[in-house]
Specification:
The structure is a homotetramer of 128-residue chains. Chain A is of the alpha+beta class and 128 residues long. Chain A contains 3 helices and 5 strands; from the N terminus they run βααββββα. The longest helix of chain A is centred in the first third of the chain and has 16 residues. Strand 2 of chain C pairs antiparallel with strand 2 of chain D, so a sheet runs across the interface.
């Protein structure tokens, strides 16, 4: 389980007074970037040294409560399954220990030309 | 079926060279706004006259091909089901008549305090 | 003078109820992209065939009135001066023929490695 | 002087491979929000208890170097001048102690209806 914390700024909200719905996906992406970095890699390294990018293939998400300006949110990311060329995550967002957003996300490993490729072995090991 | 066309600008892309994945949800939201307006309502009217907002409850989507800078995209929106307080849409995005993104979205009708409410009758009629 | 029209969507607004201040710069960039295209070039062509990108060097802007959800805005772009490796624009935004935002923007021509370069002659001619 | 640190994510970049130019303004806004909070106020408090918002009136900025994916940036914010209903900031962005963006920003105090108003006295004191 990887935890990532963030604050909600004006840029994240819309005139409905709450966080704009697409921006929860930004929050999960920030969490995934920090997860990769916590595993000991940078996105730039993956790109330059491994000819490898992880791109989102599928998102399945539900909005439970609205986040608001100045909220402190926690993204909890959990790897569910690692396959040859893809992996699956559960990423839920919490405010004050209460879940407000849940998502299931499938990431695919591609080379820098966008073709699917096997996840490099040492990265797959860490993801597992 | 409602069609909405848009152009991809720098703001929509990321350093992977393609449209940032969360921005496809912005595109579907622009399409929904225009769909509501085509039905004869404005979002402001819904808010002020009907005490009603449509918010996204669930998204289920798949990324098939990457959109790029200057692409012209078409969002095809189709209402699948209208219930008392919610409706379901299929929103697919096309480039040159080829599908690149597909989504299934559930919208909920809420009042301006965020409480779920019945979809106003004349709007429900038009959605059906 | 180049005119470009746009609609304000939820994504452009913030919880203050108006368009988020950084997004006016997005609007001016959309207008510049369309201006380049109206001159007969695409950004991709500039990049691929001319090894050339225009990047923003300076912005000087003033916010006069707030734009709101569903507003229709007009961006008026006027080239003020074309130099060897840069050009200067005045880009003002109007709602119902009333100015709400004014900006003065300096663009620099760079190659794809980010080094400043002379504006290609046929483009410079058209900008003038 | 208030310092605020941030990381550059995919969402901040564009297909030019660098941070999208409007997003530097997001970074300065995050810094201003944290500055206000460091002074002992929340934006929600200002809104609810003081009927007061600070909105951007003018931006004057220069782009010196491009920020990239995964960069760690520092926003240095310095209040230059506090007037009755407005204040002026210098906000510069650094990477590895080298300046990459500089800006001069004028903020205006308005009430929740958007009308300019005097900065509440205890806040003005702290800003000074």
């Amino acid at each position: 389980m990887f935890n990532f914390s963030l604050k909600v700024y004006y840029e994240d909200t819309d005139s409905g007074g709450v966080v704009y719905y697409a921006n929860y996906l930004k929050f999960t992406e920030r969490a995934r970037t920090n997860m990769i970095q916590d595993l000991g890699f940078t996105l730039n390294q993956l790109h330059d040294d491994y000819d490898c990018l992880f791109i989102v293939k599928k998102v399945n998400c539900e909005y439970l409560q609205s986040a608001k300006l100045e909220d402190i949110l926690e993204v909890h990311s959990k790897i569910i399954q690692v396959k040859n060329a893809s992996f699956e995550l559960e990423q839920n967002i919490y405010r004050n220990n209460k879940i407000i957003f849940q998502s299931n996300i499938i990431m695919v490993c591609v080379n820098t030309k966008g073709k699917p490729k096997k996840i490099p072995e040492n990265i797959a090991l860490l993801l597992r």
